Amino acid sequence: MKKSTAIAMVTALAFVGLAASATASVLTASPTAPSGPLVKVAHPNTGVPFTNERDLRYRTGGADRDLGQTFTAPENFTAASVTVRISANNANSMQSGVYDQTLTLRFYNVTDATTYDAANFTPNGVYNYTFPSSGSVNIGDYLTFQLDSGIALTSGNVYGFVLQWDTEAANKIVKLHHNGAFTGYSGGVGIEQNFGSGTGDVRPALAFTQLDGTAGRDLTFFVTAIPEPGALAVIGVGLAAMIVRRRLQRR
């Protein structure tokens, strides 16, 4: 096989593999926060106590709650994922009813960075995930939701995401970390929707309020970007050249 042909084939394979990994629709758990140049929006709440937590719940025998956050895009980019953090306050921060359950992320275009009015939220994607199994996720972990092929965001525009359980079950509660009285995020607001009071609760039409009922509360969250095609191509060419070089050295 000619060197040029080998390089072209390996480059194509490397590019396809990298693109697929960047756009996979999965939910992962990690003890490490996202980092690097692909993190475009971040509110890490470093050093904030885990006592600042809020229930994401759809449980039998009690009130229920969806949680979310709005944010401002700092530049034009295609969002690859959204990450939030599970609190590590105590064992009740993640309860037994959440494992292997369907969790939905709803993405919105939002009119401005201070609104809680659901009338100002326009749907821009619905994504379904399976919460990790018992033993594969721990309190304090970061949950990263891949956004399929990505969502194009425009610099200066406001967007939002809301997390909600699909069905009601016993002990279906995971508590997400937020800033509490510490420094908040200036480009958006933490939001929640409360509903129901017992068993058989039905989620109503959107009706958001302030996270934790208090102004200035924001989730610990990150939004990452899909690498630009040019960056993927450079990486792919580099990998291809390295592979071909090694193959030629073995001959």
Question: Would you kindly provide a written description of the structure presented here, covering whatever features stand out?
Answer:
The chain has 251 residues and is of the alpha+beta class. It has one domain. Helix content is 17%, strand content 35%. It is built from two helices and 13 strands; from the N terminus they run αβββββββββββββα. The chain has helices at 3-23, 229-250; strands spanning 27-30, 39-43, 53-57, 64-72, 77-85, 102-110, 121-130, 142-153, 158-165, 173-177, 190-195, 209-210, 221-225. A six-stranded antiparallel β-sheet has the order 7-6-9-4-11-12, with no helix packed on it. Strands 1-8-5-13-2 form a five-stranded antiparallel β-sheet, with no helix packed on it. It has a two-stranded antiparallel ribbon with strand order 3-10. Helix 1 (3-23) packs across helix 2 (229-250). The protein is globular, with a radius of gyration of 21 Å. The two termini are 12 Å apart. The relative contact order is 0.28. Residues 1-24 and 232-237 have low confidence and may be disordered.
**Fraction of residues in H or I helices:** 10-25%
- Helix tally equals 2
User: How many β strands by DSSP?
Assistant: 13
Strand order of the largest sheet: 7-6-9-4-11-12
Task: Give the N-to-C terminal Cα separation.
Answer: 12 Å
How many distinct folded domains? 1
Mean pLDDT: 87
SSE class: alpha+beta
How is the main sheet built? 6 strands, antiparallel
- Catalogue the unreliable spans: 1-24, 232-237
| Backbone shape | globular
Provide the gyration radius in Å. 21 Å
